Predict the structure of Rhomboid family intramembrane serine protease.
Amino acid sequence: MGGAERDRVGTGPMGPEEMIAEARKAFFVMFGFLALVWLAQLANFADHYALSRDYGVVSGDIGTLPNILTAPFLHWNWAHIESNSGPLFVFGFLAAYRGVVRFLGLSLLIVVTSGVTVWFLERGNVDTVGASGLIFGYFGYVVVRGLFDRHLIDTLIGVVMAASFAYLLTVAVPGTPGVSWLGHLGGLIGGLVGAWLFRDRRPRPAKDTHAGGGTAPTTRAALQPRPDNPRADLHKELGDLGLL
C-alpha cells in the first residue's frame, strides 16, 4: 500500500432505517469507486502508464495542480493498485456508512489536503499518484469520528482500527523510501480535520409544554416508537448500543 512516487451533512443522529439505507449506499459507492480505479488501471497499463505520467502531481509544477483530483485514481503498477484496493474499500466503507453525502465532502477534503501537501512539499521532478492519501484520510476519520460524534459503536470501531492498523503510520513519516509519505500525512490530516468538520450537530432538545404552562426537554425515550411498532425492539437495541 502507499501513494507511489513517480442532504445529510452533520445534522444529527440517524434512525436505524436511514442508517441501514446509508450503509447499503456506502457499499455500492465504494464498489463503484474501486471499479473505476481498476478500469483506469487497465487503460493506464494498456498505454504503458502514460496516464500516471500525464495526470500525476509534480511538486511546484502549476500545470499539474489540477491533477490532485485525478491522481488518486491512478497507480504505477499492479502491485501498487492491489495493495491499495483492500484498505481503500474497508476504510472507505467505514467512513461512508453513516452518510454518503457527508462522505463525499470528506473525500474531497482529503484529496485536496493530500494533493496540496505533495504539490507544495514533495521534492521536485517526482510524479505522485495513488489512492493511499484517501486511505490514510479515511483511516484517521474512522479512528476519531466516534469521539466527536459521541457514538459508542463508532468509538469502539475507531479503537479497533487504531490498534489493528497503527503500523500504517510508519509510512506517514519522513524517510519512507518508495512511497509518498507526504501524501499519506496530508491525507491523514484531512481525515482528522474532516472528523471535526463533518461531526454530528445534535439539535437542541425540543420542549414539551406542560398543562401548567411550563416546559421540559424531550428525552430520548419520548422519541422512541410506540410499543406496537414492529421496529420498536430494533430501535431500543440500537439506542442501547449508542447507535441512535
User: Anything to note?
Assistant: Confidence is low (pLDDT under 50) at residues 207-213, 215-223. The helical segments are 16-46, 50-55, 78-96, 100-121, 132-149, 152-164, 181-197, 232-240. The CA atoms of residues 228 and 241 lie 21 Å apart.
